[in-house]
């Protein structure tokens, strides 16, 4: 997430650009998205995007059509109540944010552990929120080791077309003026790089609760957006958050998938701008909001990240754990300078990652600001 000038540079809800759809749309009240208070749906400065026409898919799934105030169209696709990843075809698995069944026994065991935990999908029409695009900023090179706003890990030997990761929502206190995001992303470099990301965002004043969000970030195309949360779903202390982001270079579709305790909350496809570059790096990040207005970090102890993997092809089942490839530790400091660990005795350090294994790490909180 980025909402100001920063130095900056997948589980899935499916947003599909309207130009890629040819459905016959039913009236929105044919199935009836729930009535909610739009005034409470978004963060300050965001515009609510209520769901439009609803389509019942051939397999019983629901497609909700959205059009943003600036004219971009997309669809949220949710699977039918009968969907079971363990029984679904490969085409259905890809459609609803899973990779096809692997053949390799080790990879199959990991796949079964993930797919076997699926419980259900949300049965309501989400309300996404349009955030104005941020001002331009320069891309962070993949060799960075510290920023003023990110802490986490970055795999740096892409191309990657898919990245997945889980984290446990931490227990935090309501630090004054505090907000934080935790997300998985794919990004590129150069003038047409895009950041494909999804995760949770904490609202200022109530940082103990995380809302699912997705975002296609860039500064060079009006088709990119700010973070788009759905505030009707919350991750509280102990919630297991599963994320997958990916893109298909052949179709220019990007994919965003977020589950809370194995309940699908976001499954989105969105058409990325022509000429976009992404996948050079995969990121697993805790982020503070620099503003405007600037926010502090909420106070917590440890943020556990686990099951971090990258895939060279968006719909392929073969993956590599993040710790088995080149990766960079990203430390968050007040001045953007890297300090050797353990750094919490240094008053400049806000948060830093400590690697625990090839499959995960912890973000360690030092101080709020």
Structural notes for this entry:
- The chain has a single domain (12-365), classed as Jelly Rolls (Sandwich), CATH 2.60.120.
- With 369 residues, the chain is mainly beta.
- Strand 11 and strand 12 (195-203) form a beta hairpin.
- The strands form two sheets. It has a 21-stranded mixed β-sheet that branches. Strands 2-7 form a two-stranded antiparallel ribbon.
- The chain has two helices and 23 strands.
- The two termini are 19 Å apart.
- It is 5% helix and 38% strand.
- The chain is globular, with a radius of gyration of 19 Å.
- The relative contact order is 0.21.
Structure keywords:
Jelly Rolls; 369 residues; 21-stranded mixed β-sheet; mainly beta; 2 helices; disordered N terminus; 5% helix
Topology (SSEs and partners):
Layout: E1 12-13, E2 47-49, E3 54-56, E4 62-67, E5 73-78, H1 90-95, H2 105-115, E6 120-121, E7 128-130, E8 146-147, E9 150-155, E10 162-168, E11 180-187, E12 195-203, E13 206-217, E14 228-229, E15 240-248, E16 253-260, E17 263-271, E18 281-288, E19 302-311, E20 320-321, E21 327-333, E22 349-357, E23 360-365
Parallel strand pairs: 6-17, 8-21
Antiparallel strand pairs: 1-16, 2-7, 3-4, 4-5, 5-17, 9-18, 9-21, 10-15, 10-19, 11-12, 11-18, 12-13, 13-14, 15-16, 16-17, 19-20, 19-23, 21-22, 22-23
């Amino acid at each position: 997430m980025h909402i100001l000038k920063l130095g900056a540079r997948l589980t899935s809800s499916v947003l599909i650009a309207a130009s890629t759809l040819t459905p016959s749309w039913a009236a929105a009240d044919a199935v009836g998205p729930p009535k909610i208070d739009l005034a409470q749906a978004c963060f300050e400065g965001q515009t609510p995007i209520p769901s439009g026409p609803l389509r019942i898919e051939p397999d019983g799934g629901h497609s909700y059509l959205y059009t943003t105030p600036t004219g971009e169209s997309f669809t949220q696709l949710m699977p039918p109540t009968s969907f079971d990843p363990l029984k679904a075809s490969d085409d259905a698995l890809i459609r609803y944010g899973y990779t096809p069944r692997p053949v390799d026994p080790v990879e199959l065991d990991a796949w079964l552990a993930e797919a076997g935990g699926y419980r259900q999908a949300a049965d309501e029409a989400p309300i996404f929120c349009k955030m104005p695009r941020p001002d331009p900023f320069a891309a962070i090179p993949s060799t960075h080791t510290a920023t003023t706003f990110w802490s986490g890990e970055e795999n740096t030997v892409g191309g990657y077309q898919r990245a997945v990761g889980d984290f446990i929502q931490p227990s935090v206190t309501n630090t004054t003026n505090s907000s934080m995001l935790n997300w998985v992303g794919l990004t590129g470099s150069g003038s047409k790089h895009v950041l494909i990301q999804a995760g949770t965002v904490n609202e200022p004043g109530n940082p103990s609760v995380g809302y699912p969000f997705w975002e296609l970030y860039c500064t060079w195309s009006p088709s990119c957006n700010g973070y788009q949360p759905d505030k009707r779903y919350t991750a509280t202390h102990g919630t297991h958050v599963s994320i997958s982001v990916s893109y298909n270079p052949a179709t220019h579709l990007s994919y965003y998938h977020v589950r809370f305790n194995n309940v699908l909350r976001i499954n989105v496809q969105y058409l990325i701008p022509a000429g976009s570059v992404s996948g050079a790096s995969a990121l697993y990040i805790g982020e503070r909001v620099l503003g405007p207005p600037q926010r502090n970090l909420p106070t917590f102890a440890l943020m556990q990240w686990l099951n971090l993997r990258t895939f060279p092809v968006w719909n392929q089942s073969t993956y590599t754990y993040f710790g088995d490839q080149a990766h960079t530790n990203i430390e968050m400091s007040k001045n953007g300078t890297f300090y050797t660990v353990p750094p919490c005795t240094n008053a400049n350090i806000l948060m830093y990652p400590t690697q625990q294994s090839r499959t995960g790490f912890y973000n360690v909180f030092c101080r709020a600001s």
